[in-house]
Amino acid sequence: MAEQAAEQDEQHESALTVALAFAANLGIAIAKIVAAVVTGSASLAAEAAHSVADTFNEVLLMVGMRRSVRPADRRHPFGYGKERYIWTLLVAVAIFGMGALFAFYQGVQTIFGHHGEEASPTVGYIVLAVSFVLEGISWQQALRQIRAAAREEELPFITYIRRTDEPTSISVLLEDSAALLGLLLAFAGLGLHQLTGSPVWDGVGSICIGVLLTVVAVVLGRINLNLLIGTQADPRIVRDVRTRLGAAPEVEWLVDIVTMTVGADRVLVCARLDFRDGLTSGDVEHACVRLADELREAHEEIDEVFLEPVPRDDPGLRERVVARYGMQLKQDPPPEIGRS
Question: What residue segments make up the domains of the chain, in order of their start?
C-alpha cells in the first residue's frame, strides 16, 4: 500500500507539473502571436512558434503519462511503461520541427532583407516580461519536483537527471529553461533592432533561438532514446542485487546478472546462478522463489525477477558473458559478473 501511495503521489506531482506548464504555455503562445503580428519582430515570431510547440508538447506528455500506466496484459507482459518514452521522444521531435526550424526560417528571412518594419516594440517588451514571469512559475515547479526526487533518491541533481527513468519532469524543465533563455534572446534581438535600426539583430536573435531549441531537442532525444533501447537499473540497485544473490547460502557463484528499465520505477532483473552441489530440484525452486521475494521487498522498483540455474564452467555461457562485458576471463568471472 505504501509503495502504491508513493507511486500515485509521484504521478500526481508529474501531472501537476505538466498541467501547469500547459496552462502557462497556452497563454504565452497567444500573447506572443499577437505581439509578433503587432511588432513584426522575427524574434517574437520565433518565440511564438516555440510556445506553440511547447503547448503541443504538454499534450503529448499528458497522453504519454496516461497510456504508460496501463496494466500488463498478454500482448505486453511487462506493461506499457516504455510508451512514456515514445511520447517524450515525440516532444523532442516537435521542439525541433515546430520550434527550431521555424526560428531558423524567420531569422534567415529577416537577415536577408525579407522583413517588415518593426512597430510598437513596447508591446513586445511587455509580452516578453509577462511571459518570463509565467515561464518562471512553471520552471520553478519542475525544478522543485526534480530536486525533491533527487533528494529522495539521495543523488546529486545532475546525477539524478542522467539516471532517472522518469523523463516527464525533465522534459518540462528543459522546455522551460529553453523558454526562459529564448525570451532573453528575443528581448536582446528586439532591443538591438530598436537601438540600431538594423533588423539583422532581430534575425540573429531568431537564429539563436533556433540553435537553443535544437540543443534541447537533441538532449531530450538522447535521454529518451537510451530509455527506449533499454538501460541498466540504478547502479546501486545492481550492486545490492549482486550482493544479495551472491550471499545466498544456496548459491555457489553468481555467474551473470542483467537488469533493464522497463518503465518509470520499474526494473527487470535476470540472473544466472550456479547453485551448490547436493541441492535437490525442490531446494533450488524454493531458493529461487525466496530470493525473488527478497529482492522485490528490498527494492520497490524491481518488478520482475528471473533466476536461472546454470553451471559456471559451461564454455558457451562464459563466452556469451565475456562478449557482453568485453572482458577476458581466465579461471573465474571477475567481480563485475561473478560473486563478490
Answer: 2-229, 235-325
